[in-house]
Amino acid sequence: MGYLYRRSFKSKIDLSEKFSLRSEDIKFIADIITAPVFMPSIYYRSRVVVFCCLLVLVAQATVCSGQLRRMNVKVEKTFDKDFQFPEAVYISSKKNVGVAFSGGGSRSAAATLGQLRALNTLGLLDTIKYISCLSGSAWSAIPFTYLPARMKDTDLLGVYNDPKDLTWYEMTTTEEGSLAYSIAHSHTFPRTFFHWLRGEGNKKYSGALNDIYLKNIDLGNRHRYFSYKDENVSDIISHNIDLKAYDFYTVNPRNNRPFLIVNISFIGSEKNSKGLSSNTFEITPLYSGLAYYNTAFKIPAGGGYYESFALDAERSNALKNNNHVVVKLGHKKQIFSLADAMALTGRTYYAKADIDNHYSHAMKIGLWSPYQYWDNDFYMKKTTEKFTLADGGDVDNLGIIALLKRKVDKIIVFVNTQQPITSNNTGAVVDEGITKLFGAFNNYNEIEMSKIALHVLKNDRGQLDTLRNRLMALKRANEPLIYTGTYEVQENEQYGIYTNPSWNKVQITWVYSDDPQPFYSKLKDKDIREAHRSGKLNQKVKKKMKENNETGNFPFYVSAWSSSFKKGLDYKNEHVNFLADFSAWVIMNNADYFKKIVLGN
Q1: 435 and 442 in contact (C-beta within 8 Å)?
Q2: How many angstroms separate the CA atoms of 126 and 94, rounded?
Q3: Highest mean pLDDT among 341-350, 383-392, 474-483
Q4: What average pLDDT is seen over the chain?
């Protein structure tokens, strides 16, 4: 392991022996220095190897000196079908409604920003129980959920403006400290590379996201954990004498924060994925984990939740009578922060199984590293493993599974997609994140579908075709793509979805990001209209992306790496603002409709 070839002399350098580097660091060095965009001449790359390794060694010597400490962690077992989620006591008075924001990198972050802005303006977030998010939508939802009380929501989300009042200056300007500014000035690649040079290992990507989204709103202390309310922090402290209240961020105290669920894909890793099936791993302010436990797994994984501050720790004993276990973690290096939650759900790479059910990782720039996770099979003494927790969109890109688990009555799902609704000889084609829920795929055969389709909504009476046709009809009528239907829930043990006589159906309102023609017609500013006509509000994307139908045309912006590898997740100010304004307008223009869905009157 760790061999790099110097083509000029046909010799090889063993990095693992000479520099005592971890395999993940070696892999990152190799990928960076062999990239043509990084070093134009091959004859200088060996010197770059030595230089980078020395930097990493120095950084690791300073970062890894923290000592391990033991902590008591509360565990919630989920083997019971009637499991009561811990947050129920705090949100029982709210409407049994959940809002799901789809994944999609910076596109989803910008669209979610606009949707949060509109829902907050209408006061609907005050009464909603849940926000379910993943990937880019979590980059907006997490800062909103934990925004410090001294800051105004409008400082983060911006103020809603009707399209007729928008100006070109507003479109091309973002205020520092706002989410719009963060999305437009991410500079992901250089930030990630900088944190790698500091020897941060699997924390390098979370370090970059921390710089982008959290530092400018006073949530960027990576030596602080996160929890829900002050009383929850007090309970944790009562079992851990070394912890203090200032070691935790808590949710914004305004009563308009629904309970946050951050979705991640649990897929195993290159070493331990065989025998594991993909599933949804959840991070919340109170608890985190993989609820499903499959007794057939060769490697134990799942079975419950434990307090989120204990993520990435090593379990050191079996369950105690008081439902607590003892874990070991580094005082500073292993703290699981808000930035880590953002990094895990938005890894921006795709992991897929080969014929032997081993996972390959397509993104090779150092964003991937395993996090430690211990299962909740409480009869085993040593069960900590390093698992890969991948981009939330790899399993359920809409975040609906988490809400079905919790038996919500109504779901509003914002499909912030890159897939426009089209038609072929079989009918309307919509985003595959929708079809998967009904047990179907757009481009797979029947055998493949049976293996990987989620199938959590019944489709025995053509419910999926009805949905697709209704959305297509709305598009052809130049109307916002908003459709509400009631669906029978398909029980699915793997995803922890169970029905009962009082809950076996769910009402879902689909809000599909497509057909901006009604929005265009409202714009009055001449400069904005001209920019739209000339294509300046579309992204310039690479030829290869266009060949894959990734056009970059509004509102179907690509998730990342649209034009510059070095910029990574960056969007222009006008891209962020235009997408956020459009997403907010869809809600505000149908305010009475959404109020009726949420409030029921």
Answers
A1: yes
A2: 8
A3: 474-483
A4: 80
* Cα-based angle 343, 21, 382 (whole degrees, multiple of 5): 65
Using CB atoms within 10 Å of the CB of residue 362, give its burial: 0 to 12 exposed, 13 to 18 middle, 19+ buried.
exposed
Q: What stretch of H or E contains 212?
A: none
CA dist 97 and 157 (Å) reads: 22
Q: What one-letter code names the amino acid at 254? A: R
Is the pLDDT assigned to residue 361 strictly greater than 70? no
Beta strands in 480-542 (DSSP E): 481-488, 505-512
Please give the pLDDT value at position 362: 40
The three-class DSSP label of residue 305 is strand
Sign of CA dihedral 561, 219, 400, 513: negative
pLDDT band at 291 (very low <50, low <70, confident <90, very high): confident
The full DSSP string for 248-293 is EE---SSTT-PEEEEEEEEEE-TTT-TT---EEEEE-SS-EEE---
Q: Of the given ranges (129-138, 140-149, 376-385, 390-399), which has the lowest mean pLDDT?
A: 376-385
Tokens of 542: 């690479």
Rounded average pLDDT over 140-159: 96
Residue 83: predicted pLDDT: 87
Q: Say if residue 277's pLDDT is above 80.
A: no
* C-alpha to C-alpha distance for 164 and 21, rounded to whole angstroms: 57
How would you classify the pairing of strands 68-77 and 304-306? antiparallel
Tell me the chain's radius of gyration from C-alpha atoms.
Answer: 24
> Which of 522, 165, 213, 569 lies closest to 367 in space, CA to CA?
569
Instruction: Output DSSP code: residue 262.
Output: E
Mean pLDDT is lowest, of 439-448, 483-492, 500-509, for 439-448
SS3 state at 105:
helix
In the chain, pLDDT over 90 holds for what percent of residues? Answer: 45
Judge contact between 234 and 218, C-beta under 8 A. Answer: no
Structure tokens at 592: 């009475």
**Maximum C-alpha span of the chain:** 77
Whole-angstrom distance, CA of residue 27 vs CA of residue 423:
43
Sign of CA dihedral 70, 332, 265, 349: negative
Looking up tokens 């911006």, which residue turns up?
158
Q: Is 177 exposed, middle or buried (0-12, 13-18, 19+ CB in 10 A)?
A: middle
- Neighbour-count burial for 387-412, b at 16+ CB within 10 Å, e otherwise: bbbbbbbbbbbbbbbbbbbbbbebbb
Contacts of 404 (CB under 8 A, 6+ apart): 411, 456, 489, 495, 497, 506
